[in-house]
Amino acid sequence: RSSPVITADTLFYPASASGMLLALDAETGCIKWAYDAQTVLRGSATLSGELADGKRLLYVSDERARLHAVDPLSGERAWVIDGTIDEGVHSRLTGSPVYFEQRLFLPVSASGVQRGGEPTHECCDGRGGVLALDAASGERLWTYVTMPPAQYTGERNAVGARLRGPSG
């Protein structure tokens, strides 16, 4: 699910199923530090360029739709943000964030696959988008969504749950 970031002396590896982001010495393979996201990691790591304060941050997303920013030198958490676009809609951060000019662009997808197996689930309310974040603070600058919110269609499924659409 993920690819590492490699610098001159360090390989930053999101060990997805373990929830650990590891910094490995590129020459020896020894662990420099380990960051525990406390849940499965979903995408590849991204390393920022030099931020306004002269430092850099390493970013990785988890299956709870959170984006973690970690100090690449120490492995200390700088911040964690929720990447959900719509409250109550199951979101995922399965794409890798992209760093550009002091901003971070984060792809967000919605997933109703697990809930779709529940007969009472009011399908389908998901939509994806992109978040633009301040790369240093994680502050949300803007959100672009791929479609308007799903509306009730007037239809019901076999057990009477109301249906919505369109879904992205």
Give the key terms:
single chain; 168 residues; mainly beta; 5-stranded antiparallel sheet; 4-stranded antiparallel sheet
Report a brief summary of the structure.
With 168 residues, the protein is an all-beta fold. The chain is built from one helix and 15 strands.
What proportion of the residues form beta strands (DSSP E)? 35-45%
The coarse overall form would be elongated
| Helix/sheet category | mainly beta
In DSSP terms, counting alpha (H) and pi (I) runs of 4 or more, how many helices? Answer: 1
Count of distinct strands: 15
Distance between the termini: 22 Å
Average pLDDT over all residues = 91
Q: What's the alpha carbon Rg, rounded to whole Å?
A: 18 Å
Query: What letter string, H or E per element, gives the SSE order?
Result: EEEEEEEEEEEHEEEE
Q: What level of helicity do the residues show?
A: under 10%
Describe the main β-sheet briefly: 5 strands, antiparallel
**Residue runs with pLDDT of under 50 for 5 or more positions:** none
Describe the protein.
Strands 9, 10, 11, 12 and 13 form a five-stranded antiparallel sheet that branches. A four-stranded antiparallel sheet has the order 1-2-3-4, with no helix packed on it. The chain has 168 residues and is mainly beta. Strand 1 (5-6) and strand 2 (10-15) form a beta hairpin. It has one helix spanning 113-116; strands spanning 5-6, 10-15, 20-25, 31-36, 46-47, 58-61, 66-70, 77-82, 91-92, 98-100, 103-110, 129-134, 140-145, 151-156, 162-165. The mean pLDDT is 91. It contains one helix and 15 strands; from the N terminus they run βββββββββββαββββ. It starts with a strand and ends with a strand. The longest helix has 4 residues, at 113-116. 28% of the residues are buried.
